[in-house]
Structure formats: C-alpha cells, structure tokens
Amino acid sequence: MTNMPYNEDQELDNNTSNNIHFRDILEQRISRRSLIAKTASGAVALALASSLSGCNDDNDSNNNNTTPPTVDPNQKPSTFNFKPVNKNLDDIVTVPEGYQANVLYALGDSINPAYPAWDDNNIPSGPSFQFRSGDCHDGMSFFGLNTSSGRYDPKQSENGLLVMNHEYINPTFLHPQGPTKPDGRRPEDEVIREMNAHGVSIIQLKKDKTSQAVALVQNSVFNRRITASTLMDFKGPVAGSTLVSTKFSSNGLQTRGTHNNCGNGYTPWGTYLTTEENFIGYFARSKEDDAKRKPEEIIALNRYGLKAGSNSRYGWETAIANTESQDLFDRWSANALATQSSEDYRNGPNTFGWIVEIDPFDRRENPVKRTALGRFAHEDCRASRLREDDNLAFYMGDDSRGEYIYKFVSDQKWSNKDINGGYTAGDKYMNNGKLYVAKFSNDGKGQWIELSYNVNGLNQSNSVYPFSSQADVLTFARLAADAVGATKMDRPEWVAVNPENGEVYVTLTNNSNRGTAHALDAANPRNYTDPEGGKGNVNGHIIRFREDGDTTTASTFTWDIYLFGAEAKMASNINLSGLNDNNDLSSPDGMWFDPRGVLWIQTDDGAYTDTTNCMMLAALPGQVGDGAKATTSSGQETIVGAQINDEKLRRFLTGPKECEITGVTMTPDYKAIFINVQHPGEDSASYAEPSSHWPASQTNPAAKSRSATVVITRKDGGVIVGETVQEKPKAS
C-alpha cells in the first residue's frame, strides 16, 4: 500500500505469556445504538418508497423458470450429488452445473436512488459512501422480513434484510489514483471515504418465489450503512468505566464507529453481531507516549500490539479537517496528551475490539458494543444450539497466533418469547453472564476457566496484570486469559456450531512457522514442504469440541481435529484426511453450519493459489471422536477425524483471481445462498493495472476489481445441495 508505513505484524504474536501451547498438549495426548447516527458527512438517510434494482450477472444468469423440484427444504442431505467444481484460475465465480451466480452488491453500489451508480472513472466523494456499499465484504447474515409488521420473520425467504461486514479497504481501487499522502498528511476526502467504506451494510432484498432471482430493493427504508464514525453505545460491565472514557464521551457510555469487521454472528431474537478483529492497527502511538503512562497501561498496550512508536494502518490521524471537526481524525492518535483520559484519546483503542450488536429492523437506537463478551481480536461469534432448558452461550475466537478460544455463558436460559426483542433482548442475554477461556488438557478433555474479578486470582495481586474490577478483566481479556493459564492456539478464525449436536468447530488457517519458530507438536503436527515451496503447517486445519453433558454451562469438554487441509497429491501422512481433487483445500477460514446441518467451509489462501483460486466447499461432518490416530510425515502422532470422501465433502465454488471467499448465509427455504468475494486483484500493481477485472471481467475487460456479494441459485429453482433429497414424482 502506497505511503502506508504499517506492519501488520504489530497485531500478531503479542502473547508473551508462558501458557502452554495447544501443540504441547496434543504432543502428550496424541503424542491442537436518531434515524441514522451522524457519520463523517453529517448527512441523514432518506426514507423513500421501495422499488427494485436489477442484479448484475456472473457466469450463466439465465433462469429457466421451470417448476422447482418437490423437496423438504429442512431435510439434510445424506450425501452430495452436485458435480464438484474443478480447481481453476479463472477470473469468475465458478459454480456447479445447474447452478448460477449473480453479482448482487459490489463496492460503491448505491443503496439510495439519490446517488448514481458506480463509475470506475468517476470515484464518488467520501461522504457519499454513507449511501454506498463499503469495501472488502466479509461475514454476513440473512434476516427474513415480515413486510406487514416490518419485523424479523425467521421463516420469510422472499423478503429479507442482508446484513454484512466491510472488513477493511483496498486503497488501490477506492481512490481515483490510489491513496495519497501529500506533505505527510492524508487528504480529508480520502480519509472520509475510507472510514465510510468500513463497517456494515444493511440492504433489503426481494426474491422471486419461482425463479429464485434476487434483487436489491434500492429505495428501501431499511437500507443503511454503519461506518467507522457511527454513534454507538456501551452496555455491560465496562460501560461507564474510565477505561473507555474519551474526549468524545467523558462518561464512557458512547463511542464512534466500528471497523475491521471480519466474522459475524446473529442472535436468535433477530439481531446481527459484528466482530471487531484487527482494530489495533488503526491507531498511532508516539515513541514518547510510554513516559506518560502508568506501568499497567504499558503492559496492556503492548499485549494488544500498540507499542510505543506504532504507526497506523491508513494514517487517518494525519488528516486536516476542512469540512468536518478535527476531532474526527485526531481520535485515531492514542497518545496521552492531557491530564486525564476524558480530555484526549489515549483510551481510543479500548473502545474497539468488542462484539457489536446491530438491530437491522430498528434505526432509532444506536448499535451496542456488548462488553461482557470481552475485548480481543474477535474473528467470529456464534450462538449455541438453542434449547429452552439451557443457558444461551456464544463461542468466539481471538484471531492471532498464540491466542485463545472463549465462550460467554448468559445468566439467562433461552426463551422463544424474546424473538423480535431487539436491543432489549440483547440487554437480557448479553449484559450479564460469565466469560470463560479454554484450557486443553493432555487426555483429550478441556476445561473452561472463568474470567471474573476476584476469581482464579484475577485481582490486584495478580502477577500478570493488577486487575481492579470486572471492567479491567473484560477490557484486557487477553491478559486475564494469560493469567489463568489458558491454552495458546494457532489463530482461531471462524466458529461454527452444529445444529444437530451442538458441537463447536473452529478454523485454524495455517502457520508457516510451524516446525521452526514454533516447535512441532501433535496439535499442529505437520511440518512439510509443499510442491510450491511453502513450509510449516502450510494448509491449516479445523478443530472441534463437544461440551460435556451437552450443556453450555459445562465446565469441561471433549475435543478432536475434524479436518486437515492439503493438496490431494500429497502423501497420506500429510494429507491426513484423505482429500482428493474434488475436495482438497488450503487455509480454511470462513465457516458456517446452515440450519439443516450442512457445513460450509471457505478459504483464504496463498499457498495453493498457483493451482486454484480460493473456494467454498460443502461438508457433512460426523462427530467428535469418529476418527483414529495417525502419524505425520515428521513422525508426529496425532488424531484425525473420520476419513473424508467427496460424498461428504466437495468443492461448491471457486472465486476470481486473488480473492478470498468469505461470508456465507442462506434464505430460510435454502433456495438462495449468498457469499462474498473479498479483495479480487489484491496484488494489482496500480489503479491503472488491475490483475483482476471481476465482477465485470466477462463484460468489461478494462474494469477495475471490486469486492462484491454474490447470490447463487439453482437454475431449476431447487434447494441448494438438495439434489439427493428431492422427491420423485409419484406414479399415476
């Protein structure tokens, strides 16, 4: 990135505790809240009558309008019968025969008729991005819409709200000539554009019941953007704490914005959860700042990667305001400049790194940062399997090397009466409860350790950090987890909860240092060189666990490893899951169980991309403990889940060049599935020379690449991957 002196490594490898690595355990066991808040333009969203706008096409967009096959949409297939997509390097989204992929919502697309369509040659102003799609689409969820009540309807498929993250930006294609920094300062309009291109989109969709064609309702009153400047409330134990007191909100009850939203989640009452992942790199901190800080502040800042002398990722703090308040930009400098925290933004970083609840159906209230769930680099947040006799829980990973897996258990048992409860339900289930961190033992069992003030040594006498309140414990959850001896994990990415048995799956994407800087172990048992020269644990794997007694309040669990990524041609002691050319994958990342129990696995890879672009696969997994021991090419003994075949795991799509496939959700009738294509052409040399032209690669060879949402349907209008459960016509 031009003129951006930021090194992502500052966000990684900040766990210097002596806690045991998961590798060490496996080695022994198996020898791993106004209408819309003002944002950076000060404008307010228009409420207009609804109308349709069309979809762009990708691949074959012809609907045959045939009568859909009769099928019980809720029936889980026992095997897959669609033709697997071949590995390829094409600059399109490739889907199975009989399916079609249409581009629905791309970077800069207007969600308000007052704003014109995107034009590569006329990049719109920064403030206009309050009414346009943001960049780098990521996690997302579909919420059925009852058009009579205007509320959530979990059974509605023809009308709905699609809510999605915009994780970060690709500056090369967001500005007319890429990002600039004249005289060492970022231009105001560029910074406003970038801040508004972050955050979340809420868009209304309409689906044709016969053809399944999906379109954006451009004039919908529900359409809105939530950005890095949107007003938000704090709720939970940290709300009102001096730890989140800033010049903007001296009482620590509010903040502005959300950013670096990667994975996601949704609540059973019908709200969206967005996760703040690599938030720390958006802040700058001077080399001299340590001298103005208390020792415990320095400990916490270092543990989260904001060391003295840290540069910010995009330089937003350097902008000089002409149309906005200078305060909008100064907040990205985390220096102690005044006598107390309520007079500057030293605590700015503490206002990020949370789970944010958004009610897509309610524009009156601010989004809420739910502090009881802890602060760290949240990759994903998934609710437990719903049972009215069990407490509601949320499972989360901290996406950085050597970090931890957490769960939050609500004090409340789930009640279906709270559907459509909005933020009130959120207050009920997410403000009060206990946060736990996982510790894995060497016998295949695990323990949940409570992270509460004055429990497990989390108090002022703690040798890791002097915790003085529950606000301390939650704001610095990483330090609390260090102190209680949690197990270090290799970059816990997305989380998925099996609706059939409640088992929890976590992707661990890869580690090039495995076997070198990170010693080889049984939890991360592969150290090998792939055919392209990659070394270490090149292709990643997926771990899963089951709560003892199948209850979220369990203090212990049982775990194993479900799947190892690998190239099909690798030796069996590397390709431990037995993958073939129809299902081999590298670097599993995005992941989601649909309500039927089909697991969708997405990749964010750089190791196998000489052979194939990133992909999504459909899986029918078994359960914890269904496999056997195996020995890797390094002689390391480990446990592999049941061997995989392409009836239970097969490639459903591949993306365009240099993209990540991420974000997955479906309509409740399972007849439309949505995925996101993030940063196609991310390795482009310049704005003038894109290495990908997607999503217009088939119609405009000169087009610039843009992140976008794609909707995939079957040409016969049938259920996605439901071929094997279709009812045959009855004999006359």
General description of the model:
The strands form eight sheets. A nine-stranded antiparallel beta sheet has the order 14-15-17-18-19-26-25-22-21. Strands 2, 3, 4, 5, 6 and 7 form a six-stranded antiparallel beta sheet that branches. A six-stranded mixed beta sheet has the order 9-8-13-12-11-10, covered by helices on one side. With 732 residues, it is mostly beta strands. Strand 5 and strand 6 form a beta hairpin.
What is the percentage of strand-forming residues? 25-35%
Biggest sheet architecture: 9 strands, antiparallel
What does the overall shape look like? globular
Strand order, sheet with most strands: 14-15-17-18-19-26-25-22-21
Low-confidence stretches: 1-6, 27-65, 728-732
Please render the helix and strand layout as text.
Layout: H1 22-29, E1 99-106, E2 137-146, E3 151-152, E4 159-166, H2 171-174, H3 188-196, E5 199-207, E6 214-216, E7 224-226, E8 231-235, E9 254-256, E10 261-266, E11 272-276, H4 295-303, H5 327-330, E12 355-358, E13 368-370, E14 378-383, E15 391-398, E16 401-403, E17 405-413, H6 422-430, E18 433-440, E19 445-450, H7 470-475, H8 477-483, E20 489-490, E21 492-497, E22 504-508, E23 528-529, E24 535-536, E25 541-547, E26 556-564, E27 588-593, E28 599-603, E29 615-619, E30 628-631, E31 637-640, E32 649-654, E33 660-666, E34 673-678, E35 708-714
Parallel strand pairs: 8-13
Antiparallel strand pairs: 1-35, 2-3, 2-4, 4-5, 5-6, 5-7, 8-9, 10-11, 11-12, 12-13, 14-15, 15-17, 16-20, 17-18, 18-19, 19-26, 21-22, 22-25, 23-24, 25-26, 27-28, 28-29, 29-32, 30-31, 33-34, 34-35
